Amino acid sequence: MRVLVSACLLGEPVRYNGEIIHVEHPVLARWRREGRMVAVCPEVEAGFGVPRPPAEIRGGAVVNPAGLDLTGRFKAGAERALRLAREHGAQIAVLKERSPSCGVRLVHDGSFSGRVVAGSGITAALLRENGVAVFSENEIDQADFLLQILEAANLGE
Q: What is the Cα–Cα distance from 56 to 58, expressed in whole angstroms?
């Protein structure tokens, strides 16, 4: 079984500012060895470059600091991520919290002030609506636990 993972969490330089982050976690290391991970950056999939202006969710729309509505492009990137999940049979995703695409439980509030609020990014919401269990980088152990349950259930069929 494969797992969709935000590419930025795997050290790929796809974040809006080009910053490289890399989450070191034993579960991710094991998934890498097992060939389970499918890396995705919905914003790059939507054709945004790196670096790019930041974007936040304001009033249900994704906007940049100038107020330009980017929602359509973010939805297109989310659709590509969903298609990737389906192509690879990924029933679980581990996504970058606070992102307008991948935020699982928290997103920036649209003021570009650094404040966060409860909410989901465009991709996280679409995946969830389509039956993919979505976890943040802070919930990797929980994602692995669900993966083990799903695999055990598949073996019992």
A: 6
In a domain, 105, yes or no: no
Count of the separate structural domains present in the chain: 1
List the beta bridge partners of residue 37: 3
Residue 146 resides in a domain: yes
Does residue 104 lie in a domain region? no
Contact between 81 and 52 (Cβ < 8 Å): no
Q: Residue 24's domain spans which residues?
A: 3-55+69-95+122-155
Residue 132 is which amino acid?
Answer: V
- Name residue, tokens 């979505």: 134
Is 48 among the domain residues? Answer: yes
Is residue 42 within 8 A of residue 102, CB to CB? The reply is yes
pTM of the model: 0.96
Instruction: Please tell me the distance from the alpha carbon of residue 21 to that of residue 13, in angstroms, as a whole number.
Output: 8
Q: Which DSSP helix (H) or strand (E) runs through 72?
A: helix 71-88
Per-residue pLDDT of the chain (157 residues), as tens digits, is 999 999 999 999 999 999 999 899 999 999 999 999 999 999 999 999 999 999 999 999 999 999 999 999 999 999 999 999 999 999 999 999 999 999 999 999 999 999 999 999 999 999 999 999 999 999 999 999 999 999 999 877 6
8-state DSSP, 51: S
